[in-house]
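Honest question from a wet-lab person: if I give you the sequences of every part of a complex, can you actually get the arrangement of the whole thing, not just the pieces? Trying it with mine:
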Amino acid sequence: MSWTRKFLRVNLTSGAITEEALNMQWAHDYLGQRGLATRYLVDEIDPACDALGPDNKMIMTTGPLTGTIASTGGRYSVVCKSPLTGTVACSNSGGFFGAELKFAGWDMIIFEGKAATPMYLSIEDDVATLLPADDLWGKTVWEADKMLRQKHQDPQTKIACVGRSAEEGCLYSAIVNDLHRAAGRSGVGTVMASKNLKAVIVRGTKGLGGIQDPKRFLQVTKDAKKVLADNAVTGQGLPAYGTQVLMNVINEVGALPTRNMRETQFEGASNVGGEAMHEPRKSDGKPNLTTNGACFSCTIACGRISTIDRTHFSVKDKPEYWINSGGLEYEAAWALGPDTGVDDIDALTYVNFLCNEDGMDPISFGSTVAAAMELFETGAITTEQTGGVELKFGSAEALCWAAEMTAKGEGFGIDLGLGSKRLCEKYGKPELSMTVKGQEFPAYDPRGIQGMGLAYATANRGACHLRGYTVASEILGIPEKTDPLESDGKAGLVKAFQDATAAVDSAGLCVFTTFAWTMDDIAPQVDAACEGDWSTERMMEVGERIWNLEKDFNQKAGITGADDTLPERLLKEAANTGPAKGRVNELDKMLPEYYQLRGYSTDGSMTDETRQKWALPS
Amino acid sequence: MQKSLHIDPAKCTGCLQCESACSLVNEGTVNPAKSRIKVFSFHDEGRFVPYTCTQCDEAWCMQACPVDAIVLNPVNGSKDVLSDVCVGCKVCTIACPFGTINYNTSTGKVVKCDLCGGDPECVSACPTQAITYVDANATGLDKMRAWAMKTDNAGA
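Yes, you can. This is the full assembly:
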């Protein structure tokens, strides 16, 4: 089975906590985690509801392989309606929290309603209790984590928590678990805080049994680990450099969005990439990177554990930041660095610490600062709004200040908490917002990687690299090389990546495994662990069903094909340097074929025929 | 040749594959809470340290046990708990200076590392060779080799 077959329902309005049996029919159709929780969400909320109102629900959900020895089998997701995009939100996190929830005996937790006063949920195996969190409210994630550990006197407890940014309504707040892993995107932390829920703490000592075929599971997971170890990306590149292995690569191919995506190459890229994190610094001879760290069960271990230079202006008077913690991953480093024009690795690491400490999505935060910097340059924002701060591209001081203000939700930080779309609308220049469906772009310029343009435009949670990572094929040649500057043939590629990723997420595995694993490596692991036959074909079918379920939710929430687009800058302003020089994204060439492959109408809407084909709920 | 567990914390990534493997073979479920080897994460220092029983020669736990429930395994040198003899008095957990023998509330017995009878699962599970099973007479071999590498033969 691998599912524990039961979940918790926590009604924050009434305080009632109930145990329910998992709908196994849905588990067979949607596997787990992302897919299964979305099926529950679709069943239980009105897609048109206010994302920050009590009618939205928030589901913390694991997959059947979460808490197993399968490599990377430690993921959980948070599923709800997003306040940033109005679409379905599904944010995936690693660390140890997800596996602990399984060890306590639960596949999911559905939170509904809204508590009258701040609360947190404590789970010790079968016993779940809502407890007052008045003393935790207003505290950072790191402070709250410390207080909860002290109170419960259990160093092994796993904690997921929101920071001050979420409490203050920042629309891209994350839920941070294990101090520096995060369900980062789409404002799932904002939803959690809107329910007056500060934290969830879990201790599981029951363990996870009931693997369908334990002997075969041991063998296939062992074989699959060897595939990861023998692969150059998952066996060498990621452990050594983390996802930051990409910074110089993506800059070279001319797809590193720079200064709010005005340019596609950054002159300071090598100062903030994976290699730079290994360079000894002048002050103490130590490199930025201390070591690599793994999430539960992960044999890749791409996580960065870093320190900030103690003599750096951001922390020289703040010894509390002279510690090791989660360091720069590629997307965060890009948004905080190249996109704002800042090439100071210590400033980036400090801001990354703040994003973890107060639960902000560093991608959306950095991109929003980049938009604000361009607004400042045009004069739409002046020192009047910033309280005297020169919010200029390339200013490390301005970036650090912006992070401190947004983390606390004070002054101009309140504006920055709106996200790029609302900020640019507020200051009269909506065209400067680099977003799709209200969500900020990640770190691949679709003028230099054509397929990513289509992936961004059609992703069910707005601009996102984790919904269809065609970079793997277009740049890294995985599973086979395609030309990044060619839009022809990308519709099929994007669809295949989107469907496969939905299935991988729903299994409880990490999508980074797919640098090495194909579905032929993944399906046998699911098949050995779960009841029923899980072939590669079925996994892809489940992935496509999940994709369409999400799409259908969005359509019911009022999102249309007109929202499947990119900012004009990427469609009309050609890249000015590098291999992509002279190119724009050719979305209009790819979109019609994509809709056809998906079985949508020419305007991008879900058809009854496709809805019936996948037996989606009406 | 008798072998010994050898732990190199510098290689550990904190993935807990060892804890999962240990609990799976000994408890039948993946359950780090019941693992005989534990990985400690020192967050602020950025260090991960696996820790388990060193199989003391004059094992304090064995000497403290009032019912002789802890016995020497002559083949691999491990000190094994005979769970049908153990009465769960926990005296051994007090005697052990390292904390590596512990009481299991679900069975009422103590548990400790027994080297899986000579083929430790944590060793096979570790993806980075932070835990190895090496010649008990030369657990320092890797360190010696590393220092040997640093010697300067230029003047020889």
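Two things worth pointing out. The radius of gyration of chain A is 22 Å. The longest strand of chain A covers residues 197-203.
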